Amino acid sequence: MIEAMLIGNTFPLTLVRRRLTVDVVPLEEFRRMAAGRRIVSFWGHANTLHAASAAVGFDLSPAEERPVLTLSPEALPALGDEVFRECWILSPDFRRSFRPAVGDELKPDEICSWQCLHLVWL
User: Fold this and answer.
1) How far is it, in rounded angstroms, from Cα 50 to Cα 82?
2) Which of 49, 51, 72, 92 would bridge 76 by S-S if both were Cys, CB 3.0 to 4.6 A apart?
3) Chain centroid to CA 112
4) Distance between CA atoms of residues 20 and 60, nearest Å
């Protein structure tokens, strides 16, 4: 069975109920780690979805619009019936003092780079 990879544009800190590590990872390493894995997305910002998908080279669309993460009985992140020990977060870095308008889809040239975080629950 192919291990699923949980990915989103942010992670709610209110769901952190046990120890975890957070590492900044180069985008190339993220792409390498995603290769061949089933992607489970909880992407919540439609205005960055297309640019993020282009940056990673595959579709990051969630199965449903704005899916809701929950916690398993072990305090691990869960989406539907699936529980995860790790999560990947991609967030855009914008030019200085730029803040996108609500509801406007971003053009790829408005994003300078991508921040990639790897969260692992211990």
Assistant:
1) 25
2) 72
3) 18
4) 24
Which bin fits 86, alpha (ψ -120 to 50), beta or left (φ > 0)? beta
Which residues, 6 or more positions from 101, have their beta carbon under 8 angstroms from its beta carbon?
A: none
Element holding 114 (H helix, E strand): strand 111-121
Tokens of 18: 């046990």
Query: Which residue type occupies 77?
Result: P
Structure tokens belonging to residue 48: 């960055």
pLDDT single digits (tens) 70-101: 999 999 999 999 999 999 999 988 877 776 66
pLDDT at 108: 66
Vertex 35, ends 34 and 37: CA angle to 5°?
A: 70
Burial class (CB in 10 A: 0-12, 13-18, 19+), 87: buried
